[in-house]
Amino acid sequence: MARQFTALLALGLLVLGEPQADTLTIKGRVTTPPCTLSNVTVPFGNVPVSEFDLGGNMGTSYAKDFTMTVGGCDLAVLQSVTLSFEGQSVPQIPNAQGLALSNDANAAVGIAISVTRNDDSHTGKGQAVRFDGSESYPLNLSANKNTYLFSARYVRVPGEPLRPGTANAVATVTVSWS
């Protein structure tokens, strides 16, 4: 009787053990990690009104250099990386190259901020940036450099009286890559 039971059990396993086929699907995407941009605060400190000459320029001793750093992405695999600037520009300064001061009850009057590209590694050294987002400033990827040097300074707004006060401004800098 023990033999019959073993034979029946083996026959049952053969019926139940029939192979089945199914599909394995693997989904994913290989991507470039997003580029990030460092937040920057440019501290001017106190600038005397007397520093503005009759032509409206501020003495160069008060200009402040600053660096924007692109991170989080591998520059070696990218085709291009650019920066663009957007903020409220002053209409009296041509080409949207004067950033308006923040609207504050104690804000200075007759002053805007100019930012100039100041980096030997990238094109356009000495040229002011536009604050209307219409221009993009490329990083020199062949130099494998992830920083961009700029210089900021206060400038007079033509036709406006000069009054001292708080002289802060904010612009959005966008990093784009492909």
From TrEMBL:
Q: Which GO terms describe its cellular component?
A: pilus
Report whether Cell membrane shows up as a keyword of the record.
no
- What are the transmembrane regions? none
Q: Where is the signal peptide?
A: 1-21
Where does the Fimbrial-type adhesion domain start and stop, copy by copy? 26-176
Keywords of this protein's UniProt record, alphabetized? Signal
Swiss-Prot/TrEMBL GO biological process terms: cell adhesion involved in single-species biofilm formation
Question: Which Pfam family, any one of them, does this sequence belong to?
Answer: Fimbrial
Which InterPro entries does this entry report, sorted A to Z? Adhesion_dom_fimbrial, Adhesion_dom_fimbrial_sf, Adhesion_dom_sf, Bact_Fimbrial_Adh_Pro
Q: Which PANTHER family match?
A: FIMBRIAL SUBUNIT ELFA, FIMBRIAL SUBUNIT ELFA-RELATED
- What is the protein's name according to its record? Fimbrial subunit
Which species?
A: Bordetella avium (strain 197N)
